[in-house]
Amino acid sequence: MNVGASRLLGYAALLAIGAAAPYLFPNYQSQMAELWLFIVFALTWDLVGGQMGYNSFGNVVFIGVGMYVCAITQVGLFYSVAEYNAAKGGGQTVFTFDVAQYLEGLALGLPLAAVSAGIVAAILGSAVLGMRGHYFAICTLGLGVAAGQIANGWEWIGAGSGMVVPHAPSGIGDTARFYYYFAFVLAVITFIVVAWLYTTRFGLAINAIRDDEDKAEAMGLPTTRIKVSAWVISALFLGVAGGILGNLKRFIDPIEVAFAGATFGVWMVLMAILGGKGTLWGPVIGAVVFQVLKEVFWTYLLGWQRVALGLMIVLIVVFFPQGILGFLRDRFPERFGHKVDPALARGAGGAAE
Length: 353
What we know:
With 353 residues, the chain is mainly alpha-helical.
């Protein structure tokens, strides 16, 4: 069996496992759905942060925009959004959704979430992607904080009291499983699109910007347009992921869920670094390892889970600066397609001794 056939067989096996996972582990459907969304977070962050070299802490803005736009669409198709959020689950009006209404809201809400996040990315990108390095990172951090505060004071979307996402009708069946497959399909599509982008001239262009933006610009590359395009692509997928996550959580808090810079905003960076930023599979591996460790900490270190996550961040930065893939590539280069001269390897071993 050649390498191409083996790779296709491996992908098929992974897809089969992903499709069967809710039935194999029914008690962990929500956690596995969150894992697929984390993979989307890490892949899309790495498109800009790893492949293009622009470390953004503001991608959480697109998650929050997608989350609110999807929920507002689901409600607004059938009820007044202001009345719905003013009721806070009470009042005289009963807000119910049948299966057709619920599916119609999702069918329109998720695409609108993607488009809205993409538009926000285009507007913000045109304004801030002229900055570089720490200035860009700090600016995007401020964007996430500002977005959270705006949502926190906007009464129409629930303000600080948050927004309850429409409850799924009984005809939908197992809600966790329903959204698991949404997240699974989104992660697969994101991976395919990102993998394809890295094989195109666009992939070469963002790598050129990462390596030396001034030279890339001198050679005629429209660097600003390319940077904005990369951010918009990331935002499109994050908008859909936000819509799914909002329905999975069932409640949107503006600070703790929608624009959660202290959690999702940091975690997506951590996952990409943990697996190996600037690679295709690194963010995927990092997301899997991070989600498993997070659930272990939440289960066995309740009350200390955030301390454990903080220590994990320190350990990753100190001992795995190149990520898991980078560490493995250095230890076993031949398994990653790099030829190693035996004489040089022996020489290096002797020098080490």
